[in-house]
Amino acid sequence: MVSTRCKMAVKEELKKLGLHFIVVELGEVEIMENITAEQKEQLKIGLLSSGLELMDDKRAILIEKIKIIIIEMVHHSDGEMKMKFSNFLSEKLNHDYTYLSNLFSEVQGTTIEQFLISHKIERIKELIIYDELNITEIAWKMNYSSVAHLCNQFKKITGLTPSHFKQLKDKRRNPIEEIGN
Fold it and tell me: Are 62 and 93 in contact (CB under 8 A)?
């Protein structure tokens, strides 16, 4: 789950089944009752009809948590990251980064770093289009060590410089859910 709409869809499906939720957060639901196998199957079907998936595999849940942390960090937070991302992720999920990295690569077919970069580039596109910050401010906001680093990475991924991208009015952005998949 990566959006408010997703959370609303989950809440609606839970209500249909007469289940009472304590928490519905990104990628996580806590319900008051014990769920029966039949209710679980109905929930799974209901969520699929909304384009969502019920996950109960611990590895899949961990990968989803990695994605959620990256999306939250890139798209919904402001300011400077005060520690290395690998350390941040390890602390947040209580797992060794090597384990997280290997698991993510094995299942997703891409690295955590590439997934993170893809999201950062999409966010940079958004910030360029909004035209509220200059490229130096965007580089700082997105935790790049320099404007040159941002520009090089942006060009490597998009094939365009940030300034050229800004000139292209019809260059479309990708939905968050489709990045890195």
Answer: yes
CATH classification of the domain holding 97: 1.10.10.60
Q: Are 95 and 62 in contact (CB under 8 A)?
A: yes
Q: Crossing angle, helix 4-16 and helix 37-49, to 10 degrees?
A: 140
State the pLDDT confidence band at 173, using cuts at 50, 70 and 90.
low
Taking residues 145-166, report their average pLDDT. 95
Nearest to 157 by CA among 107, 126, 130, 121: 121
Q: What is the pTM of this model?
A: 0.71
Count the alpha carbons within 13 Å of 138 in the hemisphere toward its beta carbon: 25
Helix axes 97-108, 58-75, angle to 10 degrees: 100
For the stretch 33-40, contacts whose Cβ atoms lie closer than 8 Å and that sit 24 or more positions apart, written own/partner, are none
37 and 84 inside one domain: no
Distances (CA, A) of 172 to 72, 126, 129, 131, 160: 22, 10, 10, 15, 13
